[in-house]
Design goal:
The complex is a heterodimer of chains A (794) and B (335). Chain A has 794 residues and is of the alpha+beta class. Chain A contains 18 helices and 40 strands. Chain B is rod-shaped, with a radius of gyration of 40 Å. In chain B, 39% of the residues lie in helices and 19% in strands. Classes of the chains: A alpha+beta (794), B alpha+beta (335).
């Protein structure tokens, strides 16, 4: 919303300049996001009248004009579309310097001399209007410098109006808050309409068929208007506030809207059939052409303003082409109504029209402001168009909307905001904002004005009090009553632990946007699509991620392309999943995923680079499980799909907690990575169910133990893990640790055989083990392995 | 005898000193310390000297032998080193493990959590796929509010909504417990914003909520002042600016002193001297009543702030997208 500083000054005698006003507005909750300054006039730019305007041969746009500037008549070439004979214009004379630095000189264009330039409002810094040359008022003295014309300089604030404040969509509304804040009187526009004897009701009848959607409809009739430009100062304010001036009648409806916040509509009375306005709901499929020329198919429920035969405006949204003000208009019907915000919002959304009018009706205009607004418009029309205003308003308002009284306790206000605001200050603030205050000691009764639909409860009034009193007055409490209680959050602690462990293991944490689109053509296998979004932001964010691997692989690919090829990345975030037929609810869980590629160590000078592969990623997973105290976990692999494309998972207590594996070069080719990539993805929610929450200390052995190494040759297909489990079982309770330290495949053990070497650690808690005891255990193990696996000791 | 020992000592020292190679040093060693060397020779002559001189001479001779052994060893090491040349170049880089790092958003989130936890807040969380009830209705969002629009908010085909702020966690926590409630809730939120340098359709927020008897707006300000001073430094000032949020009344936008110009006015703060950090306010009585709290008895405040914004200010990151694209050249800066 654009608010003019000079316009505000019409209603309150601001003792402060534009900058301070902007700051004050910001601190009143109307944030001034930017300020634009416009100048009043410019030296060496004078008032002129176009006395001749002829086309130039060889040019479609240029015209040669002769401009009377008081003392002389100048030939000026002009390309503006709106220049015409008789027009009052601004002529920049040779020597003038425009705000953008352009110097005006005598020039020749297409063989015609041009001794100056006709300028637009924008060119002399007066308004943003650059559509054509400035059109002045007929009574401006020719030759007068623009510096001396009484055209106000102005500053326009671009303010952000929150949706609860329809009154801030008007200059009077903004001025009211400023006046209250500054404790100055508010001066609303004075209105006195000169009316003729004939009553308005003689020319129009209003029928409300739907008084719920249109609780009030006021109409006035103005006879014999002359359509012409409105006075320059009014046009200037409109264009500075972002509205294009059109003609006096239309400009007035816009001007009054910006002034009082209430949209109006003007009909060409001659085009209304049957001297009747009927407010009814549209029939489904009824078509209507709005004044921007667009054809709309309406639905039932759309509120339509009709004459005796057809629709003439979509209520509160936009007028119709069939009844709009035209240069030929003689008589005008002014509409000023109050429409139900919900109805207008639905229509505006359905039709996709967001107009200055609908924006205001949607938020709620003042139903009781109708007489003031329509009279203001009628008075201005009489003044600027020469029309005659008929007597009285035809005002259909079957059930007047009254302000609701609100019980208000000043003590409650002080208690809630923590500021000791005196009763009197509160009363002044509320009164300044337009409230009626009945002050009965502790319990006040406050009636909020109907232009403030946001004030309906005590707490709303408390906000007004502290807002106008000043948020800066709220002290910062330095003590607080903290309940003596502390909380642990095991899931969050586990999540942080996981992140710390992985960062410690050399992984860089990634955070990605949790939306994307899985694409089997470019993703490695096993990337689920996730959960579809009904209204995605972009075509590549159609789903909530079903896995974190998709984003990790995409990040890896981008890094790989840039030459960063040793990658250890992880991410922890929610993943999203469609429900099943049994339970169709979508669900989400906290997931943790990592990928590894490249070399075991960062490339250095000491060792030749060693590629990181399956066992590195299994080792990382193992380290993570140990570091988070995962209980009884098992890292397993499904039967090998192929040597370099392994799939497996992590489980504990019979529950699968996640998956891991390797994508081989071929699988990664689609992601433009020419290397194998290991990955894992775990559910942190599920991990949390299997971590040891209580750890118990086991004293280290007090008596020396014994270490023995055994190497056994077994069938090449036997899993080392199985052998290790068997050793553990055969070794009995004194065998405390079994560790594989060598794997050998080769001639010495024979084809299809392998040698595995284990280090065994024995000890007893209560005494030193004898050599015989240890040997006995080792032999038992060897014998057992021989029996079960035909293992041969080397 | 004593004189003889002193003389040999001088001579031996000179020879070791003048030795120019390992061979010369070894020769000197043999000459004096060898089995047939000068010292052994003197020991052999010991029986020939008067008995009363023997203890003194023996002691001197032993001392000389010990001295020369050290000298000989030093000389040998000197030449041995020169010869065996492969010395360690200690300027070569060390053998590094992979250096991992937490993401700046994680670092900042943890800092924020840490500060609030010290002030007595518990950490809560809630789902990212929310119901319209928790995301809007329970937060007193009017039916017409533009935030409900499909142009502003992401929906699932089944009508669920991707939470637009962490505020629904407030409702879930209050439904689950009675006051006093002091929580913060960090997490991801979603808006239907097209990605650009300052917007992302997904970002992170932290929600704060305190409900108890007698909680005032001054408590809100005091907590936020304490929080922002801890996060950004003691010179930080906090300003409340009136605003409108459906779930709070009164509501305030929270500004802090611009971190780049210390409030003097610069490009970042658009000459205002203040930068916006988030929204806050007193919990609307409708919200409290909706979860079954007595809004006459209990009052409370709520606040929210964007974690990306904090991270971008703290580290001087000017494009929000660099937080999400997993570029290791970016991530490695937070090792």
């Amino acid at each position: 919303m654009l608010i003019s500083y000079s316009w505000l000054k019409d209603f309150v005698d601001l003792p402060i300049g534009p900058e301070e006003t902007a700051d004050l507005l910001t601190m009143l909750g109307l944030e001034a996001e930017s300020m634009t300054r416009y100048r009043g006039g410019l030296d060496k730019v004078v008032v002129g009248r176009v006395v001749e305007c002829l086309p130039i041969e060889g040019s479609e746009t240029l015209k040669r004009t002769r401009v009377h500037v008081g003392s002389e008549v100048l030939p000026i070439v002009c390309g503006a579309p709106n220049v015409r004979e008789g027009m009052i214009v601004a002529a920049a004379l040779p020597g003038a310097i425009l705000p953008d630095g352009t110097k005006i000189k005598i020039a020749k264009m297409l063989g015609h001399e041009s001794r100056g330039m006709l300028v637009s409002e924008a060119e002399i810094g007066m308004s943003p209007d650059a559509a054509g040359v400035l059109e002045g008022d007929p009574d401006w003295p020719l030759g007068m410098s623009f510096e001396k014309l009484a055209i106000s300089e102005d500053t326009i604030f671009d303010v952000e109006v929150t949706p609860n404040r329809p009154d801030f969509l008007s200059h009077v509304g903004v001025a009211r808050d400023l006046a209250t804040k500054l404790r100055l009187p508010l001066r609303e526009p004075g209105i006195s309409v000169e009316q003729i004897e004939a009553p308005t009701s003689q020319r129009i009848r209003v029928v409300l068929e739907d008084a719920r959607s249109c609780p009030r409809y006021g109409a006035r009739f103005v006879e014999g208007v002359t359509i012409k430009p409105s006075p320059f100062s009014y046009r200037l304010r409109l264009s500075r506030c972002g509205l294009r001036p059109i003609s006096n009648i239309v400009d007035i409806t816009n001007y009054v809207m910006l002034e009082l916040g209430h949209p109006l509509h003007a009909f060409d009375y001659a085009l209304l059939k049957g001297a009747e306005i009927r407010v009814r709901c549209a029939r489904s499929g009824e078509t209507f052409i709005t004044l921007d020329g667009k054809v709309h198919s309406l639905r039932s429920g759309t509120l339509l303003i009709c004459d005796a035969r057809r629709g003439v405006a979509i209520a509160g949204v936009m007028g119709g082409q069939n009844s709009e003000i035209a240069p030929t208009t003689r008589d005008v019907l002014i509409e000023c109504a109050y429409f139900d915000p919900v109805s207008i919002r639905r229509t505006s959304k359905f039709l996709g029209i967001n107009s200055d009018s609908s924006r205001r009706f949607e938020r709620g205009v003042n139903p009781n402001g109708v007489p003031q607004v329509i009279d203001r418009a009628a008075a201005l029309m009489a003044q600027f168009s020469g029309g005659k205003v008929y007597r009285g308003i035809v005002d259909e308002y079957p059930e007047p909307i009254e302000p609701t009284p609100i019980a208000f306790r000043p003590s409650r206000a002080r208690a809630l905001v923590g500021v000791d605001i005196p009763d009197k200050a509160m009363e002044e603030i509320l009164a300044g904002l337009g409230c009626q205050v009945e002050n009965n000691e502790e319990a006040w009764v406050v009636s909020a004005p109907t232009f403030r639909p946001d004030l309906s409860r005590e707490v709303d009034l408390i906000e007004e009090v502290i807002r106008l009193h000043g948020y800066d007055e709220i002290p910062a409490a330095i003590t607080s009553k903290v309940p003596l209680r502390a909380w642990r959050d095991p899931l969050r602690e586990l999540a942080e632990r996981c992140a710390d462990v992985l960062a410690g293991l050399g992984f860089l944490e990634v955070q990605s946007v949790s939306m994307g689109k899985a694409d089997p053509r470019t993703d490695p296998p096993g990337i689920p699509q996730g959960v579809a979004i009904a209204n995605p932001v972009t075509d590549d964010m159609t789903h909530l991620q079903g896995t974190l691997r998709g984003n990790l692989v995409r990040a890896a690919s981008a890094n790989w392309q840039r030459g960063d090829r040793t990658l250890r990345l992880f991410e922890m975030a929610r993943t999203f999943h469609e429900g099943t037929s049994d339970d169709p609810r979508t669900w989400e869980e906290l997931s943790l995923a990592g990928i590894l590629s490249g070399t075991v160590y960062p490339v250095g000078w000491t060792d030749p680079p060693k590629p990181s592969g399956f066992f590195e990623s299994k080792g990382v997973l193992d380290a993570l499980c140990q570091k988070i105290s995962l209980d009884n976990y098992e890292i397993f692999c499904y039967d090998n799909i192929s040597e370099d494309s392994l799939r497996g998972g992590l489980k504990a207590g019979g529950e699968i907690l996640g998956e891991f594996g390797i994508w081989n070069r071929k699988e990664m080719a689609t992601c433009e990575i020419d290397a194998e990539v290991a990955y894992f993805e775990l559910s942190v929610d599920r991990l949390a169910r299997h971590v040891q929450t209580k750890r118990k200390f086991i004293p280290p052995p007090r008596f020396p133990g014994a270490t023995r190494d055994i190497a056994v040759v077994v069938d090449g297909g036997l899993a080392a893990g199985e052998l290790q489990t068997a050793i553990q079982r055969l070794g009995g309770e004194n065998l405390k640790r079994v560790e594989l330290f060598d794997l050998y495949l080769g001639e010495q053990v024979g084809a299809g055989r392998k040698s595995l070497a284990f280090r065994l650690e024995f000890f007893r808690a209560e005494r030193t083990m004898t050599a015989e005891e240890v040997e006995e255990s080792v032999e038992r193990i060897v014998a057992g392995l021989k029996e079960e696996y035909q293992a041969v000791r080397r | 005898m004593i004189e003889k020992i002193a003389q040999i000592r001088l001579q031996a020292f000179r020879e070791f000193e003048e030795a120019k190679s390992l061979q010369e040093a070894e020769a000197a060693r043999n000459k004096y310390l060898g089995r047939k060397g000068a010292i052994a020779d003197l020991f052999r002559h010991m029986p020939g000297i008067p008995p009363e001189e023997r203890p003194e001479a023996g002691e001197a001779l032993n001392r000389l032998r010990a001295e020369l052994e050290v000298v000989a060893e030093t000389a040998r090491e000197k030449f041995a080193q020169k010869k065996e040349a492969p010395q360690i170049d200690t300027t070569l880089p060390g053998r590094m493990p992979h250096l991992g790092a937490l993401h700046p958003l994680t670092i900042v989130t943890r800092q924020i959590i840490d500060i609030f936890r010290q002030m007595g807040f518990a950490v809560a969380s809630g789902p990212e796929i929310e119901t319209v009830y928790y995301n809007f209705d329970a937060l007193n969002t009017p039916p017409w509010h533009p935030s409900r629009d499909e142009s502003a908010t992401l929906y699932l085909p089944n009508g669920f909504v991707l939470r637009t702020e962490t505020s629904p966690v407030q409702i879930r926590v209050m439904e689950a417990m009675q006051p006093p409630v002091r929580i913060i809730a960090p997490g991801r939120v979603y808006r239907r914003d097209r990605p650009d340098a300052t917007h992302s359709p997904m970002f992170h927020q932290v929600e704060g909520l305190y409900v108890d008897e007698g909680v005032t707006m001054a408590d809100l300000k005091g907590t936020l002042v304490a929080f922002y001073r801890t996060l950004f430094g003691e010179q930080t000032a906090v300003r409340f600016r009136p605003h409108f949020f459906p779930f709070t009344e009164p509501s305030a936008e929270v500004d802090i002193t611009c971190l780049f110009c210390a409030g003097k006015g610069c490009r970042i703060c658009k000459e205002a001297g203040w930068i916006e950090m988030g929204g806050s306010g007193m919990v609307d009585p409708n919200v409290l009543d909706g979860v079954g709290y007595d809004s006459e008895k209990y009052t409370g405040w709520a606040c929210g702030l964007g974690i990306e914004r904090v991270a971008m200010f703290l580290y001087g990151i000017d494009n929000i997208r660099s937080l999400y694209d997993g570029d290791v050249r970016f991530l490695r800066q937070f090792i």
